[in-house]
Amino acid sequence: MTIFDVVIGLEVHAQLLTETKIFCGCSTRFGDNPNTNTCPVCLGMPGVLPVLNKKVIDFGIKLGLATHCSINDKNIFARKNYFYPDLPKGYQITQHNEPLCRNGFLDIQTDGKTKRIGITRIHMEEDAGKNIHDEKKPLSYIDFNRSGVPLLEIVSEPDMTNTDEAVAYLKELRQMLVYLEICDGNMEEGSFRCDANISIKPKGAKQYGIRTELKNMNSFRNVQKALDFEISRQIELVESGKEVRQETRLWDTAKNATLSMRIKEESHDYRYFPDPDLLPLIIDKRWIEDIRACLPELPEAKRSRFIKQYQLPAYDTDLLTQSRELSDYFERCTTILDKPKEISNWIMTDVLKVLKAENINQIKVTPQMLTRLITLIEEGAISRNMAREVFDEMAEYGKLPDDIINAGGLSQISDQDDLRRTIDQILESHPKEVDSYKQGKTQLLGFFVGQVMKATKGKANPKLTNTIIREILEI
Amino acid sequence: MLETARMYRHEAKSPKDLVQALLAKIKQDTLNAYITVDEAGSMEAACQATKSIEQGHDEIMLGIPIAVKDNICTRGIPTSCGSKILSNFIPMYDAHVIERLKSLGAVIIGKTNLDEFAMGSTTTTSHVGPTLNPWDHSRTPGGSSGGSAAAVAAGLCAGALGSDTGGSIRQPASFCGITGLKPTYGSVSRYGLVAFASSLDQIGPIACSARDVSVLFDAIKGYDPKDSTSVAHEYTPSVLDGIDIKGLRIGVPRSFFSQGLSEQVERELRSGISTLEELGATIVDMDIPHIKYGVASYYIIANAEASSNLARYDGVRYGARKMDTQSLSDMYLETRAKGFGNEVKRRIMLGTYALSAGYYDQYYKKASKVRTLLINDFKSAFGICDLIAGPTTPVTAFGLYDMVDDPLSIYLLDIYTIPANLTGLPAISIPCGFDDDNLPVGMQLIAPAFREDLLLRTSMTFQDNTNFHKVKP
Amino acid sequence: MKINKAEVEYIANLARISLDDSEVKRLKKELSSILNYMDLLNEVDTTDVEPTVHTRTITNALRPDELRESQNKQDALVNAPTRQNDFFVVPKVIE
Prior knowledge:
The complex is a heterotrimer. Chain A is α+β, with helices and mostly antiparallel strands. Helix content of chain A is 39%, strand content 20%. In chain A, the strands form 4 sheets. Chain A has a 9-stranded mixed sheet. A 3-stranded antiparallel sheet of chain A has the order 6-5-16, with no helix packed on it. A two-stranded antiparallel ribbon of chain A has the order 4-17. In chain A, helix 9 (367-378) packs antiparallel against helix 10. Chain B has a domain at 2-220: Alpha-Beta Complex (Amidase signature (AS) enzymes), CATH 3.90.1300. Helices cover 38% and strands 13% of the residues of chain B. Chain B has 15 helices and 11 strands. Chain B has helices at 2-10, 15-27, 39-54, 96-103, 146-153, 170-175, 210-220, 263-278, 294-309, 328-339, 342-355, 361-384, 407-412, 418-423, 452-464, and strands at 34-37, 65-69, 107-112, 159-164, 179-182, 202-207, 249-253, 282-286, 387-391, 427-434, 440-446. In chain B, helix 2 (15-27) runs antiparallel to helix 3, helix 9 crosses helix 11 and helix 9 crosses helix 12 (361-384). The two termini of chain B are 18 Å apart. By secondary structure, chain C is an alpha+beta fold. Chain C has a domain at 5-40: Orthogonal Bundle (Histone, subunit A), CATH 1.10.20. Chain C is 35% helix and 9% strand. Chain C is built from 3 helices and 3 strands; from the N terminus they run H-H-E-H-E-E. Chain C has a two-stranded antiparallel sheet. Chains in contact: A-B, A-C, B-C. At the B-C interface, helix 9, helix 10, helix 11, helix 12 and helix 13 of B face helix 1, helix 2 and strand 3 of C.
């Protein structure tokens, strides 16, 4: 296996979160009834013409800047001509020779190291409609709601050498798109789509091998599986003296394999030429700087800052910064209570247990409530275990921690006299164990604390209990 | 048109009466100028206009009956482009120019015949059969706007809209003895014009006189945000008067008078140019060096764009479809094979070839470079003259099916009209004489971009001093 | 001939137009004749000449990201040769 190098390049199509389509004013909303978000333009009716949505360019420039690309000042749209039922005009309007962005990069973390993955180009284009195949009859049904939805096509350099890097790149890119609020990154709904180009070559060889194109991988897991499968398949072929065929293969989830597309390998002569219906698009420095000024703090920068500012380990910062909403939530907590590690722990376990990172704004536990809870623990008013139960109730009903505690009589018994009385009772009823402890079996401390907790139904302050018992038994 | 407007106001003839009479006349027409006549719609519009005029409204286009070439989309009215593949197509939207005309109270009588998808110079490739030339029914009215031109010449409308990609307004105007204008590219919205060649197409007015053409041009010109190639040009208000052309420098390119030009056409042209000279213009001998490459450059670019523009006619969402095919592939192949005529197929093939891998540079790119040279030629030319004059076409109206087996010869007849499309400049054809068979001869004037005023007003001066445009077939 | 039978068939397929043998033959002749004529352009020296796509020099025709009312779905489907439940229907693509 180690005698081959793997070369992977990835092509991502990201659907943009604009209100309207790229060339007409129809809604881009997903999931509406078929053919209700259409108009003569996105249906390719006779005589209609495209008019470019400015926001699409804004979003493209945003991504280009965030990935350190150079932004093209003179942009041309081209027609990519081919026939398919979901392509209403018989051509797709895209960019060919003068893409919006070029020569950028994205840094990924794999194996504890940073690797730079080049981005060859980013360009704007329109999406096609959706083909739905009938299970039984030889018919297909077409919905053109998606026709004309704006896409950014992001092409990476073939810089990835294993599937972990490929998935890391996709995750990083997806996070970037979501951070920038230009795409919702939903692979299942198809707003973040990935195709791969993969080849192998003898280790160290200069010349690239024949590459196959992989499609239909609709989750990160499937990307991983498909790439792994394809690598094995190609290695097997080459090792048995056969050649890898240049072809497009589809990932089949049911069969757990990549399968060759059985349609006739068409010479893809797309006959690109500049679209005469669209004018050249000139982007000046002012436009670029305006966009740059509005860029949010990007994931990379945020992660570094979190590590420095909050002294948190990388594991924590990775989790906390997975979405802007979550990192904002964290930071709001820290402004109320300056205990970043505590807060981080609670978020990583209990908060994320309740909610996915993107939906953090829907959680009923506000930063005020969470920090109050943590403060109550620190003050000894409540044990950590109790706090977990309180949290669950906060998350379910949105009640304030103080209210929950008072209502349930959950306050931690920290009053020393009460506690001493209970401890004395326990120690009295376990004379044998007390003797053993005094003779050196100090691990019995845990037993005594446990008994106290049982007797107080968990309300005792464990730390304090521990201290008092040791005090008593040391004498 | 202006005459009609005057009638409405002074002689108390109402749009309702006029349109009713017109519809009756059209029923008798044997020219096959109209594909669809919208009786109900035009009577309704005529009644509306009648009311408005009675109420004292005064806008010039009120109640004026206009014929529209059938490649311009009209909501609720079949728009076939003269093709089988769209013979059942009814758009649910109006072209921009139609919205404009309706808002001005004009009456849209119906849709006129054309060469299929505007590809042709004879109006014989339409799936409803040819339109006949009102001057001689055995001859072509020209094309592709032959129906519109014939309708105007035969008095079946007061004015008409055509489209011009390589001469399709001017050449029929010339063959039918009337006036037709191809406006500056970008001055009239293409939204709703079924595209043939996007960088060359323009909708334009056709009528009996330059004044009428001017009024109709005003009614349709102007910026439209639905057309990205539409220009927001601030035109000076139109003046319906001829200008004093004393000192106007009119360039007459030598290449326009070389071989291929019929003797009789040349004779009438020289005479027309002399008239201009007598009226005070200075004739400047000059040339457009790259004229002879225009046809080749045009036919590559136009057909390349067309091959892409016509890809949408696949039977999926509208139009005719070959049913009962076994596969999607067959559906495409048969739908298009049966739906398109020979000329359209030929051009799609040519265009596809010119864009295909290995040929793009040699054909499409090369042709686009030659286009630049032509543009430069005209830039220089307008440095030494104000207008350029010459024949609209090398011949007069020929027999309906002459040259049908020789497409190239027909293409070559576009030599004088093509340059204005390739360069995006405005050009007009006005009647300037008759040949020995009493067939009309047209003179073409070309102006710098957005100088329709120069074209129109010079034409008005010419027409105020001649009678050719007044002769009816 | 400027263009041969195989090329005619290739182009016809690219353009999705089925041709019978007599049409292929005819088109071969016609296209060759026309393409021969196009060779005229080779006479022209176009070194350092930029191709023209647009005759006007305007740029940046843009529109704001504002919703316009979509047409109702009846209008969208009214011209459909075959429809079912608000979908356009075509023979299935064999994959």
